[in-house]
Design a protein that fits this description.
With about 60 residues, the chain is mostly helical. About 90% of the residues lie in helices and about 0% in strands.
Length: about 60
Amino acid sequence: MANEDKIRGRGQELKGDVKQTAGDALGNDDLRREGTTDKAKGKVNQVKGDVKDAIDDLKR
């Protein structure tokens, strides 16, 4: 079951992908770095969601 952290994380990753692609296309290193940061934050949120799901499973 997807939780809010996983959904938010995937959204951040997608935003990061868009920024990275735009940065590549425009030759904008700052935008490319922002995209990398957003993707990393998204992955952290997804892991956080996975941990919450695992804890919920253990409680059952």
